[in-house]
Design brief:
The protein has 550 residues and is of the alpha/beta class. It has 4 domains: 3-33 and 79-304, Rossmann fold; 321-418, no CATH class; 419-512, no CATH class; 515-546, no CATH class. It has 24 helices and 9 strands. The chain has a 5-stranded parallel sheet with strand order 6-7-8-3-9, sandwiched between helices. Strands 1-2-4-5 form a 4-stranded mixed sheet, with no helix packed on it. It comes from Filobacillus milosensis. GO terms for molecular function: ATP binding; ATP hydrolysis activity. Keywords: ATP-binding, Nucleotide-binding.
Length: 550
C-alpha cells in the first residue's frame, strides 16, 4: 500500500481496487479499496500479538525483570469471540457501503439534499426520499476487563483508517474515504459532547474544520445529527464505533427518550453502521425500542460474557505462560489454570494482572518460583476491592451479582502495585549500593595502607618481593591494622623467616659434613670408608706433615 500524508491531517493510503468474489461488492470503489476478506486462519495471524521474549532475560537483576513482566500486557491472543467480532465488523462495513456507491444513481443527489439540510438546517434526515440505508449496526455488552476495547482496536487496525481516491477505472474520483471512526463517550457525559467529539476526530484525521464551523454555536442535538449525517456521506464513513456508552448521563442528555431517539436516528438514517460498546451498566440506555429499531440488521447483539474454564481459557493461559521472568521456569499445570480461573472468574484483565503480580512477588521475595499458592496469596493481598464482586460471581447467586452493575468497575491498582514493588526494589538496590561502596572504600583504604607500608619497608632496605609477600600474608590474617602496626608485624615476619632460613642452611651444612652420610653414599659407589675420608680431606697424608726427603 502506498502511504501519503493528508495536508493538515493524518497518514493515509492511496486506493488500490481489488477484484471481488462477492458479486454485489463489485463496482463499488469504497468496498474494492478495502483489504481482502480474511479467512479464519488469516484473521488469527493478523490479530495475534506475541511480545518479544528471550529466556536469558530471566538471569537479569530483579529491578530489570519487574519491568519486563509488563510485556504481558502487550500480548493479544485471538479467541473465538474475537474471530466472531472480526467477521461481524467486516460484514457491517461492506453492507453499509452497498447503498452508498458513488457511481450509482442517487448518490450525488443524496449529497446535495444533505448539503441543503446543513445550509438551512431544515427537514428531517428520515425524509430523504432518495437514500435508503443498508447500514447494519449492532451492540456489544460485556463486563469490564474482558478486553472489548482492546479487541475492537485490534480489529479496526486491520483496516486503513483513511483511503485517498484519485480515479476509478479511468474516471476522475477525488475523495477521502474514512473507513472507520471510534469515539469514546465524552467527559461531559452528554449527547452534545459526543457530537462535538465526532467533529474533532474528523478534523484531526482529514484536516477539516467541522468543529469550528458547527461546534461553537448553539445548535441543538437534532441540528448536529443532520450535520453528522452529511459528514458521514461526504467522507464515505464505513463504521462508527461508540465506546463506553455507559458513561452517558441521562440527565445531561435529556432523558431516556432523547438518548434512544439519538441512537435510533444514528443507526437508521445516518447511513453508516454504528457499533455501540458498553458494560451492563449501559443496558438501561438500550431499551427495547432501540433493539426493535435494529431487529432487521441481521448481525445480532453480542453479549461479551466472562470466559468459561474450557478450551478458550486453556488457549489464553497457554499463550501467556511462556512469558516467565522468574529465574526458575515452571511448567503449566491444571492447578495453575484452575487457581487463575478461580481467582479471576474468567475475567481476562484480572487473570493477566494476577499472573504478572505473582511473578513480581516471586522475584521480590527471592523465591524465584511462581506457584499456585503464590497466585492465591497475591489475590488475597491485592484484590481486596474486587473481592466482593469475585465472590458474587463464584456464588452464582443472581441477586448477589445484580448488586454490581459493572462487575469489575473497581479496577485493580496494578500500577500502584508496580510503584510499591519498584520502590522496594529501589530501596534494596540503594542498600546494596551503599554496602558495595563501603566495601570498596574499605578495600581502597586497605590498599592504601599496604602500599605505604611496602614503600616504608623498601626504604629500610628490605627486599621488595619479600616485603610484598609478607605484607599480603599479614593483612590476610589480620584486618584493620594501621600502618605502624603493619610495618612492625611485617618486620617480625621477615625476621622470623630469615631465622628459619639460617637454621635450615646450618642443618643442611652440618649434614653435608656428616661422615656417616658420606660413608653411606660411598658404599653406593663401591668405595671404602678410607677412600671416602681421604677424598673428603678428613685424613691427611704423611707428606703433608713431614714433607719429602732429599
Amino acid at each position: 500500500m502506498n502511504k501519503v500524508i493528508i495536508p493538515n491531517g493524518s497518514d493515509a493510503i492511496v486506493a488500490e481496487y481489488g477484484e471481488q468474489v462477492i458479486k454485489e461488492y463489485s463496482g463499488n470503489p469504497f468496498i474494492e479499496a478495502l483489504p481482502s476478506i480474511l479467512s479464519t486462519e488469516e484473521a488469527i495471524e493478523k490479530m495475534a500479538i506475541y511480545a518479544e521474549y528471550n529466556p536469558k532475560e530471566r538471569m537479569l537483576d530483579k529491578h530489570y525483570r519487574i519491568h519486563l513482566v509488563q510485556r504481558l500486557f502487550q500480548c493479544f491472543q485471538p479467541l473465538w469471540i474475537h474471530l466472531d467480532l472480526e467477521s461481524r465488523i467486516s460484514r457491517v462495513i461492506r453492507q453499509g457501503y452497498l447503498a452508498r456507491n458513488a457511481f450509482r444513481a442517487g448518490y450525488a443527489q443524496g449529497l446535495q439534499e444533505g448539503h441543503r439540510s446543513i445550509k438551512g438546517l431544515q427537514g428531517e434526515l428520515s425524509n430523504n426520499s432518495v437514500f435508503r440505508t443498508t447500514a447494519a449496526g449492532f451492540t456489544i455488552i460485556g463486563v469490564s476487563g474482558m478486553g472489548k476495547t482492546t479487541a475492537i482496536n485490534r480489529i479496526l487496525s486491520l483496516y486503513p483508517q483513511v483511503i485517498v481516491h484519485k480515479d476509478y477505472n479511468g474516471i476522475n474520483f477525488s475523495m477521502y474515504q474514512l473507513v472507520w471512526l471510534k469515539l469514546d463517550c465524552p467527559f461531559d457525559s452528554s449527547l452534545r459532547g459526543l457530537a462535538l467529539e465526532f467533529f474533532r476526530k474528523v478534523d484531526d484525521l482529514l484536516g477539516t474544520e467541522y468543529h469550528k464551523k458547527f461546534g461553537l454555536g448553539r445548535k441543538t442535538i437534532n441540528d448536529m445529527l443532520v450535520i453528522m449525517s452529511q459528514i458521514a456521506r461526504n467522507t464515505g464513513l464505513g463504521v462508527l464505533v461508540i465506546d463506553e456508552i455507559q458513561h452517558l448521563s441521562k440527565a445531561k442528555s435529556g432523558g431516556d427518550q432523547k438518548m434512544l431517539n439519538f441512537f435510533v436516528t444514528l443507526v437508521n438514517t445516518i447511513g453508516v453502521p454504528v457499533l455501540l460498546v458498553g458494560t451492563p451498566a449501559g443496558l438501561s440506555i438500550l431499551q427495547s425500542e432501540f433493539r426493535q429499531a435494529r431487529r432487521g440488521s441481521g448481525q445480532g447483539d453480542m453479549i461479551w460474557d466472562r470466559l468459561k474454564n474450557n478450551q478458550n481459557w486453556d488457549l489464553l493461559i497457554n499463550a501467556l505462560w511462556g512469558y516467565q521472568w522468574t529465574k526458575k521456569q515452571i511448567p503449566l499445570t491444571d492447578d495453575f489454570k484452575n487457581v487463575l480461573y478461580e481467582e479471576s472468574q474468567g475475567i481476562i484483565d484480572i487473570a493477566v494482572k494476577l499472573y504478572a503480580m505473582g511473578q513480581i512477588e516471586a522475584i521480590m521475595t527471592g523465591g524465584e518460583e511462581i506457584t499456585p499458592e503464590t497466585i492465591g496469596q497475591v489475590a488475597n493481598k491485592h484484590l481486596q476491592l474486587v473481592k466482593p464482586m469475585i465472590q458474587a460471581l463464584k456464588s452464582g447467586n443472581i441477586s448477589k451479582i445484580a448488586k454490581f452493575e459493572d462487575i469489575s468497575t473497581v479496577d485493580i491498582d496494578f500500577l500502584g502495585f508496580m510503584e510499591r514493588e519498584r520502590a522496594s526494589v529501589d530501596l534494596q538496590m540503594k542498600m546494596e549500593a551503599i554496602k558495595r561502596t563501603q566495601k570498596k572504600k574499605e578495600q581502597e583504604m586497605n590498599t592504601s595502607i599496604k602500599e605505604k607500608a611496602i614503600l616504608k619497608l623498601i626504604e629500610l632496605d628490605f627486599e621488595p618481593t619479600v616485603v610484598q609477600k609478607v605484607v599480603e600474608e599479614v593483612t590476610g590474617k589480620e584486618a584493620n591494622l594501621d600502618i605502624n602496626e603493619l610495618v612492625v608485624k611485617v618486620i617480625q615476619g621477615i625476621s622470623a623467616s630469615n631465622k628459619q632460613k639460617k637454621k635450615r642452611k646450618k642443618e643442611e651444612t652440618s649434614l653435608e659434613n656428616d661422615i656417616r652420610i658420606l660413608a653411606i653414599e660411598g658404599r653406593k659407589e663401591n668405595k671404602t670408608v678410607y677412600e671416602i675420608l681421604c677424598n673428603g680431606g678428613f685424613i691427611k697424608s704423611h707428606e703433608s706433615d713431614f714433607g719429602q726427603t732429599g
